[in-house]
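Structure, all two chains, one model.
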Amino acid sequence: MFEIRMLEEGTVRLAGRLDAAEAERVGDELLAIRESVRLDCSELDYISSAGIGILIELYKRLQNTGHTMTLVNLLPRVRSIFRYAGLDRLLRIE
Amino acid sequence: MVARTFPRSFGALEAIYAFIREFVAGCGIDPEIAYDLDVIAEELFTNMVKYGRGGRREIEIALEWNVPILAIRLRDFDVERFDPMQTPPVDPSRPIAERRAGGLGIHLVRQIADRIHYDYQGRDSTITVTKVVSS
C-alpha cells in the first residue's frame, strides 16, 4: 500500500511501497503536483521501475515549468534503486 | 525449490511479496534481501503480464536457497517467446530528458542479480535469476 501525505507547504511525504500496481493507482495524483516540491521519502519502503517512472515524469513536468523536485530522507535500499537507475546524480537528492 | 502460482495481474504483487517474505524468513537470511527479490520478482512478473502473448494460465514463481546462492525462477506457460534480456540496455548516464520509457525494470534486475538465464521450451518461458548472498 502506498500513500501520499501533504505535510507543510511544499513538502509531500511518500509512504509505503510504490510498485507497478500502486503507480497505476496513484500516478495521476502525484502528477497533479504543479509547484516545486520536496518529496519526503522517510517512509517510502520500496520502489520499482514503475514508481521511478512516475517520479521521472513528475520531475520533467516540473522542470519544464521552472519548478524543482527534491527527494529527501531516502532509506538506503531505496537510494540503492535510484543509484542502480543512474538517477542519484541526475535528480536532486538530499 | 518452493513454487507457487499467481494470477496474471498486478494485483497479485502483494501475494508475491508475502510469498517472498515467508521464504526468506524460513531460510534465516537477512530480511533486507527480500527487497532485492521483490524488485526482481515484480519487474519480471509484470513483464510477463504485459508481454507474455497468448498467456492465459497463472505464472509460477519458485524460490530456492542453496547456500550461498539464492535463486528465483519465473515461468510463464504456453506463451510466445519473449526474452526480456534482449531489451536494449539502459544508459544510466543519459540525461533524464533523453531517457526513453521502458527497459528500466530489466536494467534494475541486471544490477541486482549475479546471473540471469532465459529458457524457452515447449511454449513455456522461464527466467531464472540467481544472487550470491553473503551470510
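DSSP finds three helices and five strands in chain A.
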